[in-house]
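Task 17 of the worksheet. Students: predict the tertiary structure of the chain below and write it out as structure tokens. Keep your answer in the requested format; marks are given for formatting as well as content.
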Amino acid sequence: MYEYFLTVFNPSGEIAFEERFEAESDEAAKKKGEALLSEKNYLEHTHRLTRSGKLLLFHR
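Model answer:
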């Protein structure tokens, strides 16, 4: 299992939402991250998903 960090930003650059979770792979983490974004209505906000400094998902 790997540790992932999902961060969502407001237009002003402040953090609107932050979540740490574990997943078995980067692909599984992307799916879980996108599900969290959808659930919280943050899909269109600026967001990023990282693992150990590696950027896996980014939307601006």
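Marker's comment: Strands lie at 2-9, 15-23, 46-51, 54-59. The chain has one helix and four strands.
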